[in-house]
Amino acid sequence: MKYLIVIEETNTGFSAYSPDIDGCVATGKTRQEVHENMREALAFHLEGLQLGRQEIPVPHTYSDYIELAAMA
């Protein structure tokens, strides 16, 4: 399955979360590091749900960009 992750720049690096997986977050000093950390966090989180015999969330969010003309 593919899960959307949102990566945000912070004062100390980057943070990430998935709108499809409540409470699953990660941080990193670089975009690559936060991406890798988020992959591990998602796998760990989903494994925990599976071991607890809980439902695995189905991805249901997507992203897109809207382009606007520059405002003067």
Description of the structure:
This protein is α+β, with helices and mostly antiparallel strands. The chain has a domain at 6-51: 2-Layer Sandwich (Double Stranded RNA Binding Domain). Helices cover 29% and strands 17% of the residues. The chain has a 3-stranded antiparallel sheet with strand order 1-2-3, with helices on one face. It is flat, with a radius of gyration of 15 Å. The protein starts with 5 loop residues before the first strand and ends in a 21-residue tail after the last helix. The model has no long low-confidence stretch (mean pLDDT 95).
Quick summary:
With 72 residues, the chain is of the alpha+beta class. Helix content is 29%, strand content 17%. It has a domain at 6-51: 2-Layer Sandwich (Double Stranded RNA Binding Domain), CATH 3.30.160.
What keywords describe this structure?
single chain, 72 residues, alpha+beta, Double Stranded RNA Binding Domain, three-stranded antiparallel β-sheet, 1 helix, 29% helix, flat
